[in-house]
Amino acid sequence: MMGFWGRWFARERRPATPASHRPANEQATETPILAPDGTIPGHQLEECFYRFVLDLPADTGENVHAAREQAVLQRLKEWCDSGRFDVRSLPRMPSVLPQLMRAMKSDNLNGAQLAGLIRRDPVLVGEVMRVTGSVAYRTAHPVGSLQHAVVLLGQIGLRHVVSVYVMKPILMASAGAQGQLAGQRLWDHAERCAHAAVFLSKGQCDPFEAQLAGLVGYSGLGAVSRLLGKELQDALPACSPAFIAGCARVAARLTVQAGQHWDLPPPVLDALIEHANGDADSLTLPMSRVLHAAQRLAMCQLLAEQGLLDDEAHYADDSVSLFPSPLLARCRQDLRRNFAAIDAP
């Protein structure tokens, strides 16, 4: 279903950064240790991913910076709990998005009605026309109207255009002007996560809502990256797993605050709240389980592309195991087909 979109939007993706050109902190990022059967514990996978996105150094095991880490974590928690994180600093979702989401769930809405909704947002109109005017959509007759463009895109294509148009600038902006590297890495993961969430959503939840959950699931991590840039004027020479886990907890709570600010659909917001309030084994909502599995699969794909994880590594712990192994394997293959081959030099 998403194969064409993987090929099309790959034209706008930045190639994976070769390992030899990574910053010093990134080169020091720990590679997870695989078990003899090739599996990786979920917590190690997540830790490696957070270090990669936040560009934090590997753990030396000496824990000589524990006091400084605790002080930084305390300030992050206070900043989050006190409401000093101003969600209004994040771009708002376009007001037309909720209406478009409802409309695209309906099989009765025609191209003219969808075009009427899109027409309310001039920037979105430009994005739709730009995509359908590309060589990928070259037809015998030029696209002469917004309605023609909407029909040409189809429901799946329009969903993807809307999601990319809405979320990429938000994630890139969330990390601040000094966090462009983190913002790009967040977007790279979000693309892969959204793709996997749609793949796993069949029979579980609405695919467009699953796609949206995949895109926003780590949006709070950008804000944490921005804060760490302010708090860590002198970079830590090493970061403990406990420090990484603390940053992740704050990021999850900020993601919920951002989701409330954006008025996300209740199933998406409920999944974000459940992720922030519990651990992987306590997830009960179908959307939560889809999001968690998609996030893990996207981490494996992105880290493998960066040379930080064996391409054949897999895992079978916590709620991911609720999905049949063959389904997870097919999703991994689909991610490789749509991302790894494109980003290869």
CATH fold call of the domain at 27-89 and 175-343: Hypothetical protein af1432
- Give the integer mean of the pLDDT values: 78
The protein's oligomeric status is single chain
- Order of helix and strand elements from N to C terminus: HHHHHHHHHHHHHHH
Give the number of DSSP strands: 0
CATH class of the domain at 27-89 and 175-343: Mainly Alpha
Structure explained in plain terms:
The chain has about 350 residues and is an all-alpha fold. It has a domain at about 25-90 and about 175-345: Hypothetical protein af1432, CATH 1.10.3210. It is built from 15 helices and no strands. It has helices at about 5-10, 25, 40-55, 65-80, 95-105, 110-120, 120-130, 145-175, 180-200, 205-215, 220-230, 240-260, 265-275, 285-305, 325-345. It is globular. The two termini are about 25 Å apart. Residues about 1-30 have low confidence and may be disordered.
Give the arrangement of secondary structure elements.
Layout: H1 3-9, H2 24-27, H3 42-54, H4 66-81, H5 97-104, H6 111-118, H7 122-132, H8 146-174, H9 180-200, H10 207-216, H11 219-231, H12 241-261, H13 266-277, H14 286-305, H15 325-343
Helix pairs in contact: 1-15, 3-14, 4-12, 6-8, 7-8, 8-9, 8-10, 8-11, 9-10, 9-14, 9-15, 10-13, 11-12, 12-13, 13-14, 14-15
